[in-house]
Design brief:
The protein is of the alpha/beta class. The chain contains 20 helices and 16 strands. It has 4 domains: 6-131, Rossmann fold, CATH 3.40.50.2300; 151-320, P-loop containing nucleotide triphosphate hydrolases (Rossmann fold, 3-Layer(aba) Sandwich); 325-400, Helicase, Ruva Protein, domain 3, CATH 1.10.8; 405-454, Arc Repressor Mutant, subunit A (Orthogonal Bundle). It has a 5-stranded parallel sheet with strand order 2-1-3-4-5, with helices on both faces. It has a 5-stranded parallel sheet with strand order 7-10-13-6-14. Helix 19 (433-440) crosses helix 20 (444-454). Keywords: Activator, ATP-binding, DNA-binding, Nucleotide-binding, Phosphoprotein, Transcription, Transcription regulation.
Length: 456
């Protein structure tokens, strides 16, 4: 049976709490129990349960259930979408109807039947998950309506599903995260997704592009400065770390940071305090770090260009964003998304791409990843005519697909080339034999024979 998530049980009977904890432990990720409403707000905000099992009565000989309704009101004030299941030994139809009208999800009588209790919790957990999916879709729609269309994340490949699953697992954590990936893969968009799905959502989200800030300005940008700290410091200014306190600091392209600046950043992270330039006073900071780089950070450590102790501090969790060439049919999903966007922008009647155009996009290596695909689609829409984009609408730079001479020599063997072609077709089609055969321009039967011949 699928795990129920986090369950908070509120009941004044310790025997009931013990029995429920024992019963539900194999089915729940985490369980917290409290004997009364006094600490309800604390556990709702810190534990953030998926489902609340709430007793209706906390005073002996009281059967009205009003205490439970008061608690329900408090819970829904903290989390309007909370899934609350009432429990009471004094069940009747009137209370059940009133509970649902007040915002409860369901109603369980005491003593409970095990199967019915588990089924009710399972339904509650499904409702909670669907709420999260709806909220995520709403966020994406709001981002689009606000003009932040670049923040929409599109992808159905296994590689991207793994990224989404990891983001969901990190929802309740404050861990520092290192995002690795080539230029143009969307590391900054993933960073914002992590922020929106974190306990610090709604708090400051501050970005520093370390690839665009000169080293001599890094310290003043990160830590701030006092009036008169240097020639142009006409007034005091808070640094990015100070501004981000309580929220998230996104350090993009952290691989560009020099060793002296790495040391200063590490000190700030370890001491959780900074000093503005020109000040002798320390300022406490509380930031969650999300860092990103396209560099081979571990090779940089081996070569002495990046501090190993700083790497340990920033990569509690690592996320590897796959290059576009490894995302299979996501290429076409993204192409369609960009086509629709730019067709609206430039007021063109374009419905899609021809089959040949799709094949051309799928066979290209996309060294610039999603960013290159976006620019390619915009150019094709601007210059294209008719309702469909064709292969000739897409012109790729020869230099972007050129390979080193040495590598060309290594793959001149025909069997090796055939193996690479079949493997790439299978990867692009995500295992779909019909599509893979289409990419290769052969029949399914011929593809099966080649797979058998090559031992794939």
């Amino acid at each position: 049976m699928e795990k129920f998530g986090k369950i908070l049980i509120v009941d004044d009977n310790e025997d009931v709490l013990f029995a429920l904890n024992l019963l539900l432990e194999p089915y729940a990720e985490k369980i917290k129990v409290i004997t009364g409403p006094e600490r309800l707000e604390y556990f709702m905000t810190t534990f953030q349960p998926d489902v609340v099992l709430l007793d209706m009565n906390f005073s002996r000989d009281v059967v009205s259930g009003q205490e439970g309704f008061d608690c329900l009101k408090q819970i829904l004030h903290i989390d309007p979408q909370a899934v609350v299941i009432f429990m009471t030994a004094y069940s009747d139809t009137d209370k059940a109807v009133r509970a649902i009208k007040a915002g409860a999800t369901d109603f369980i009588p005491k003593p409970w039947e095990k199967e019915k209790l588990l089924a009710t919790l399972s339904s509650g957990m499904k409702l909670r998950r669907s709420q999260r999916e709806v909220n995520l879709l709403k966020e994406q729609v709001e981002a689009l309506s606000d003009g932040n269309a670049d923040e929409r994340i599109i992808g159905e490949s296994d590689a991207m599903r793994a990224i989404f699953d990891t983001v969901e697992k990190l929802r309740d954590t404050d861990a520092n995260i290192l995002i690795l990936g080539e230029n143009g893969t969307g590391k900054d968009i993933i960073a914002r997704l992590l922020y929106r799905h974190s306990p610090r959502s709604g708090k400051p989200f501050v970005t520093i592009d370390l690839g665009s800030i000169p080293e001599q300005l890094f310290e003043s940008e990160l830590f701030g400065y006092e009036k008169g700290a240097f020639t142009d410091a006409r007034k005091a200014k808070a640094g990015r770390m100070e501004v981000a306190t309580g929220g998230t600091l996104f350090l993009d392209e952290i691989g560009n940071l020099s060793l002296p600046m790495q040391a200063k950043l590490l000190t700030a992270i370890e001491k959780r305090q900074i000093s503005r330039l020109g000040s002798t006073q320390s300022t406490p900071i509380d930031v969650r770090l999300i860092c990103a780089t396209n560099a081979d950070i571990r090779r940089m450590v081996e070569e002495g260009r990046f501090r190993q102790d700083l790497l340990y501090r920033i990569n509690t969790i690592e996320l590897h964003i796959p290059p576009l060439r490894e995302r299979g049919n996501d290429i076409l999903l993204l192409a369609d998304h960009f086509l629709q966007r730019y067709a609206r922008k430039y007021r063109k009647e374009m419905r899609g791409l021809t089959r040949e155009a799709k094949n051309k996009l799928l066979k290209y290596a996309w060294p610039g990843n999603v960013r290159e695909l976006q620019h390619t689609m915009e150019r094709a829409v601007i210059l294209g005519d008719g309702s469909l984009l064709r292969p000739e609408n897409f012109v790729f730079q020869a230099s972007s697909v050129a390979r080193p001479h040495k590598e060309e020599k290594e793959v001149l063997n025909l069997e090796q080339l055939e193996r690479q072609a079949v493997e790439r077709a299978m990867r692009l089609s995500e295992g779909n034999m019909t599509k893979a055969a289409e990419y290769l321009g052969i029949t399914r039967f011929a593809l099966y024979r080649k797979i058998e011949k090559l031992g794939l």
